[in-house]
Amino acid sequence: MNKQDTLPKLKDFFDRNIPLPEPALIRLFEAMELVKLPSKHSITQPGEICTIEAYILKGIARTYFINEQGDEVTVHFAKEDWWIGDVASFTLQRPSLLHIETLEETYMLTISYERKEQLYAEYPIFERIFRLMIQRTHAFLMNRLVSVLSESADKRYQYFLDRYPDVPQRVPQHYIASYLGISPEFLSKIRSKKAKLRS
Amino acid sequence: MNKQDTLPKLKDFFDRNIPLPEPALIRLFEAMELVKLPSKHSITQPGEICTIEAYILKGIARTYFINEQGDEVTVHFAKEDWWIGDVASFTLQRPSLLHIETLEETYMLTISYERKEQLYAEYPIFERIFRLMIQRTHAFLMNRLVSVLSESADKRYQYFLDRYPDVPQRVPQHYIASYLGISPEFLSKIRSKKAKLRS
Fold first, then answer.
1. SS3 for A51?
2. CATH assignment of the domain containing B96
3. Residues in chain B within 8 Å Cβ distance of A122
4. Does the structure show a pLDDT above 90 at B197?
5. Residue A174 sits in which domain range?
6. Within a 13 Å sphere around the CA of B167, how many CA atoms are in the beta-carbon half?
């Protein structure tokens, strides 16, 4: 993958979500680095400061933490056309609570804290752009919190399928169970119930 | 309470958290309204767009939702020197998932969506100020998500006491249980265990 060829994808993301004037888009793109990571590569870990935010071009990554019982809890999956990074750790430069790791070979455009701060300093329009982006991220997290504490596992699985239709084919089932907050056995019961309803 | 007398409190909040040049502080303050609400007053409800963000001068409010089982889940309590509002609903002007209500007579400085947009348009420094504020809010919510899915109820209660030392004296115990994600009976067991340890 050649960096220059990835610009249309980034442009398309912003066109659909937060329109960005062409010169600002170019400045952002120039501040970003094309990175290729193998599968199961750790992007950040608890106790470390998350050093990048990244736009995923190809591949998939997940954010998770390990709870007091020693179980993994998946916060979210990010795939093509999504951003990844621990926003809290990255923006406040505080140690992360989270693991972020790739689940496939992943190509992404990354930006470092220093480059992002430079963008803010040189081009104030990025204050607005990234304010709008974090508003979206925050709304997403609030939905996630309400969903995990509120809805039945069946409903959460359906919501998951709507949002991530291709993910069940791409990642191990126990990661999906850990996203839904249920055991892998319970997930397989839900799946067979759904399969029966369809047949 | 006289509006002009409340400026030092707002100034003090920003001095401690996100330093704001004096003229910007004054512009923000002028865009805000001093509001007094009785206890148990609804600020927003699911399905409505949250119309304000507010800095609490005196009193306490809580954000909650009702889950599929019909139980209340308290997302957080906001008291003196905290901000309240459904950031996702307010900033994106989308229907809220949440209830927000006062639990005591509450004085607050509120800002409407229109006034805030006007601040952004007239004084670009607010893009930065509110970007920094939402970063804090987002980090707080991520901590909350990790804590509720990760830590034991004892630990969550201790964390709650550290963060909200005076709240147990100010709000009904079942709201605190619904914040911790446990039954009121289980909360009272934790409390008596703690009391025994102290005696």
1. coil
2. 2.60.120.10
3. none
4. no
5. 151-199
6. 24
